[in-house]
Write a structure and sequence with these properties.
It is found in: Cell membrane; Membrane. This is NADH-quinone oxidoreductase subunit H. The protein is 63% helix and 2% strand. By secondary structure, it is mostly helical. The protein has two domains: 312 residues, no CATH class; 62 residues. The N and C termini lie far apart (113 Å). The relative contact order is 0.10.
Length: 440
């Protein structure tokens, strides 16, 4: 029986073109649908209807907004770098679509009389390709902020660079656990390795770290610091309009779909049906075209979590955001990788009983709990260094920057007596002559 890579290698050119067009259409349609779904779900959370005018249930509202953006005036700042300003949104959008090429949407099927796999290409390093594509997207953001010639987009782009670097490391470390478990970097092999059990409960720490990192990686609330409207006007795309702004919007939502599809592939069994359905007739629902339904349904679950977080959580401060990435996610991922490697070595060692393995896992959990309890609470130390505002707990600036006290008010001179106000006409004329002012 041929492997997935061998099946894809035998695809004719016309079939590969069909797959490319289908992937591009899937990304665009998912973007339009996600914009509508986000507005409807957030509206429901806020007790308002959301879009409900254009099309049935407002489904065509996103398409109408896209057409409106296309006819908007395309404005380019005078001080902007022309070519970099033009290429930045393209650099953001293209890697987002490229990441779909290694995602397995389903098993082997027969398409137009040709036996193939529901995947564009199966690479031995497919997971690294997705990480590389997500990393390249930040170049478009940084270049857009630099080429705009404005300080606020530049600040937003620099924030995005620091953010993506921080959470890209945590995301990569979370995937290491999956690689150690499946012994492969190929996305199709990872899906096949989950036939006996999904990794979201076999590798819970990796799943949680990845779920947090993918929200920070896509610049979504509550981690949307690069486009924090309250601080940066609009972030890196402040100076963009028309179709260039639409490309940034498209790249953001396609990236959401990509990281959600990757989470489905790595931790939720990919295109495999959930347990009760997978046991029907010996797994008949895991064959044919049915797995596309399970894959899209799991992806929608993660996309709904994106919208849910935006409607419920406030935006984090930048120091809280960076502290979470560097001081929590990265150390926890490193300790977890060591435990996984040790457990694999212990599991493959002959002569080790099941009781000894359970004792090892129990000791590992105790070590993690002790490590978490011994971590110092940095917030308490920060609050002790400053004088808090009464009743709020937020720190104040240093005392040397405090506003000085107002000087005492000067007293007005006493009013003259009535006798002193009455002056002779000659005295008044003499005073006017001295001052040179004869006006009344």
């Amino acid at each position: 029986m041929k492997t997935t890579a061998e099946l894809i290698a035998d695809d004719p050119l016309w079939l590969s073109i069909i797959k490319v067009v289908a992937i591009f259409a899937f990304g665009v349609v998912m973007t339009l649908f996600m914009i509508w779904l986000e507005r409807r779900v957030v509206g429901r959370m806020q007790h308002r209807p959301g879009p409900n005018r254009v099309g049935p249930f407002g489904l065509l509202q996103s398409l109408a907004d896209g057409l409106k953006l296309a006819f908007k005036e395309d404005i380019r700042p005078v001080v902007a770098d022309k070519w970099v300003y033009f290429l930045a949104p393209i650099i953001s959008a293209i890697p987002a679509f490229l990441a779909f090429s290694v995602i397995p949407f389903g098993p082997d099927v027969t398409m137009f009389g040709h036996h193939t796999a529901l995947q564009l290409v199966d690479l031995p390093v497919g997971v690294l390709v997705i990480l590389a594509c997500s990393s390249l997207g930040v170049y478009g953001i940084v270049l857009s902020g630099w080429a705009s010639g404005s300080p606020y987009p530049l600040l937003g782009s620099l924030r995005s660079a620091a953010q993506v670097i921080s959470y890209e490391i945590a995301m990569g470390l979370s995937i290491v656990g999956v690689i150690l478990r499946s012994h492969s970097l190929s996305t199709s092999d990872i899906v096949n390795a989950q036939e006996g059990g999904w990794y979201f409960w076999l590798l819970p720490v990796s799943f949680v770290v990845y779920a947090i990192s993918m929200v920070g990686e896509t610049n979504r609330a509550p981690f949307d610091l690069p486009e924090a409207e309250s601080e940066l006007v609009g972030g890196f795309h402040t100076e963009y309009s028309s179709l260039k702004f639409a490309l940034f919007f498209l790249a953001e939502y396609v990236n959401m779909v990509v990281v959600s599809a990757l989470a489905t592939t790595l931790f939720l069994g990919g295109w495999r049906a959930p347990w009760p359905l997978s046991a029907i007739d010996g797994g008949v629902l895991n064959t044919g075209w049915w797995p596309i339904l399970w894959f899209v349904g799991k992806t929608f679950f993660f996309l709904f979590v994106f919208v849910w977080l935006r409607g419920t959580l406030p935006r984090l401060r930048y120091d809280q955001f960076m502290r979470l990435g560097w001081k929590v996610l990265v150390p926890v991922s490193l300790v977890w990788i060591v435990l996984i490697a040790a457990s694999n070595a212990l599991w493959n060692t002959p002569g080790v009983t099941t009781g000894q393995r359970l004792i090892f896992f129990g000791v590992g959990i105790v070590v993690l709990l002790v490590f978490a309890l011994l971590l110092p609470d940095k917030r308490v130390a920060d609050d002790e260094e400053f004088v808090p505002v009464t009743g709020s707990g937020y720190p104040l600036p240093p005392l040397d920057l405090s506003v000085p006290k107002s000087p005492p008010r000067r007293r007005l001179p006493a009013a003259p007596e009535p006798a002193e106000r009455e002056m002779e006409p000659a005295a008044v004329a003499a005073a006017d002559k001295e001052t040179g002012d004869g006006s009344l």
